[in-house]
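ligand=glutamic acid
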Amino acid sequence: MNIRTTAPSIPFRQPPHFRTLVVSSFAALFVLSGSVSAAGQGSLGEPGVSGGVVTTSEPLAAEAGATILRRGGNAIDAAIAVMFALNVLEPQSAGIGGGGFMMVHRATGPKKTFVIDSRETAPAASTVNMFQGQNFGLASTSGLSVGVPGAVRGAELALNNWGTMSLAQVLQPAIQLAAGGFRVSSRLEESITSTRLSSELGNPAYDEARKVFRPGGVALVEGDFLVQPALAATLQLIADHGADAFYTGPLAETIVATQQNYRGANSQLAGRMSLADLSNYEAAVREPVVGDYRGYRIVGMPPPSSGGLAVIQMLKMMERFPLGDESKGYGFGSARTMNVMIESMRLAFADRAVWMGDADFVDVPVKGLLSDAYIAQRSALIDPDTRQANVMADDPWPFELAGKKSPWQLAAVNRADPPGGGTTHFSVSDANGNIVSYTNTIESAWGTGLMVPGYGFLLNNELTDFNFTPQANPDPANYDPGANDVAPFKRPRSSMAPTMIFKNSQQPLAAYGSPGGSTIINTVLNVTLNLIDHGRTIQEAIDLPRLSQTSANGTPSFEYGFPEASVQALRDIGHNPGATFDLGSVQAVVIGTGKSQYGAADKRRIGGVVSVSPDEIIKDGPGRKR
Ligand code: GLU
């Protein structure tokens, strides 16, 4: 495959908050062919041998994970430590008031890749039409949109089964950061001043977060010292008494009371979560979805996310096009490559809108959607030089169940999800080769904006990921399964896409993911193509400008930096692309040859990479066990 050597015509924009703070990293010159530059050998005790890598969007969180690795913890322990630390450092994006998907690859014992699903669930009292007709802005800042938080149960499940440390041990760095304080970052400053926290609502429930981040009515700015005693006490409570202290008792009672608040005057927007919803919450362990692309195995997030299915569908639809070959008019940033990407996105997002949802509640035709025959049928609709006039979902069921003929005609849909502003992705590897790729979220930036009084964490607004208007339609002439309609206990469809790439289906090469609402899927696609088709290093693959379309018949967005001629060519064939800033924020680890490991973080946020030397690891630490 060819590597593009010419620079894009427009210099890649560096956002105002550009500050890649690399605590201790190596030049990530690894490319997926498996070659590793000597620069990667750095100052490690033994050349090319790693004690583990942690990559996060906030440098101090990477340091928190590295602390756990140095104490002998494994990648699972370190990832949970990062998850808690990010609640302190990046509270607008993620934390214990939300949930996420933790993809784990275990290198020791029977090798296995699986996902711990701590996605929020709809309360028992949810109804299919509870969001119907509601104003999105009001609903997404009201208790009605709060899903039962899963992060703490997910952490407990991960540590109990695959960790080597206790909740109390991995919580220590986060407790220290919350109790001891840290300097506010540029990104946190930006978020405090530019979001829903900035306006007075006259409702004390919404003042709780303002008291922390705008003390005395004055927004914290970069460099200010932030201490969060209430959050520290909450984390200490979980450390002392386990996850039950979150899901039962006074903390649970305060969560229930907090989500009864709503913005505006419509009491229908009050939350419906009960104490029983909290105490009954269970995290789940799931098998990932898998697809092969140009000799690499792509391991993706299964339902309730649409992430893995959509990414793999798109890759496989594009496999027949030589995307890396400049001599054939392709290559990074060429109009042809961009058009094939957009057309694949349109087809995958059309299917996503109809078929994808929580597979514990609806039949999701996973096999059919990823079957070679169905993908070939979909891919045949793509012409590299033209735009499809109208993209529709198709029916994968005949490919799921051989011989089945569907009795229905699909309803036409053109639904696009609003892009998210919250969420964070981090990746961790350890000395034994265990890897974690974890996307954690409270949905929008600052979630609902509701902070649990006295406990210092924000409640998610994840239930806005459900269809606001129920879509189920059994009419055979206008069929829609309503895959993402609200139901009690159901998880809203996600786009989160923690991903891993393997060589020879066994050997892990890279782990990554991104925030960004439905654009997550396309960010992961862009990075995957940059690695596999364009032969870029992991850092280049992350840095390059990205392209995204999140609906069948909407318009594509592109980050600044693509050649203007290519953008014009897309316009000429009928796309209406619009420029945008900052699609996603990818944090990755890559496994090189031998025992080398590298990390890369995204300049679109702050980014922190810490590589741990084997010499730093306490030899008889608990992590040696797993
Ligand atoms: N709630 C979104 C999802 O699960 C993530 C939000 C975001 O990335 O901002 O797909």
